Fold Helix-turn-helix transcriptional regulator.
Amino acid sequence: MSDTADGGPASEEPCRAREVLGMVGDKWSLLIVRHLSEGPRRFTELKRSVEGISQRMLTVTLRGLERDGILTRTVRNVMPPHVSYELTPMGRSLREATAPLLEWSTAHLARIGAARAAYDARPDAPPA
Amino acid sequence: MSDTADGGPASEEPCRAREVLGMVGDKWSLLIVRHLSEGPRRFTELKRSVEGISQRMLTVTLRGLERDGILTRTVRNVMPPHVSYELTPMGRSLREATAPLLEWSTAHLARIGAARAAYDARPDAPPA
DNA sequence: CCGAATCCGAAACGATACTG
DNA sequence: CAGTATCGTTTCGGATTCGG
């Protein structure tokens, strides 16, 4: 399968791929989507499980995904506050669409590291 | 298929997805990979077909992809210079892994636009 | 024709402190 | 608990200029 059932033959106009990458190509979106694929999660749960993300980036990223219709934000106005995030059907379809890429990454990361090492060891390797 | 054959259950350690996105999650990499999936291309051909990319970003992105073993760079030292770029087998497998995401994008972009419009029209929409 | 080098503005990101 | 506000740093990316 070299040219069928893919995202198009690339020869078409300005290409929508950029818009998708502008949405999920950031540092955290796909991580959050992936974690939410296991079920609804609360803010602090995500904060812990994504690990490395700051409060700010978690908030910002969640807002963006909510705006794009990838997930829903449900507020229970009690004390203490309780906010739950959950994938929409579109969010789950996105998760499935990104699965092959995540698979690919785990399968090829070692090879990529080797390629980089080989490249950097070449006589004509770039200085920095 | 809700949970099988995907990139893992998300519960594992710090997650490699970030490294992949650090590689192909930028603005241009996937576009270039997509264009190269049709066969080898020269620098100026890519410059024209990607359209919107600057010389600098084309050079930088191509170098990165070459370093990661996604594509090869072949120089024919003649006048005028002739440099050809071509996907490696790993590059082609990457192209296939990203195909579902590109498919998804073309299928859902309109719906996302609608979701954004609806979100922005909500009474509690963010100011900016 | 194919790039490298430099400069600069814009945007992303992170740490911290504060609020209901 | 679940954010918001502010600040400083880092990175991205475009324009321009120069070299082989």
Chain A touches chain B through 63 residues (CB under 8 Å). Chain A is about 55% helix and 10% strand. Residues 42-44, 47, 55-56, 58-59, 75, 79-83 of chain A lie near DNA strand D (CB under 10 Å from a C1').
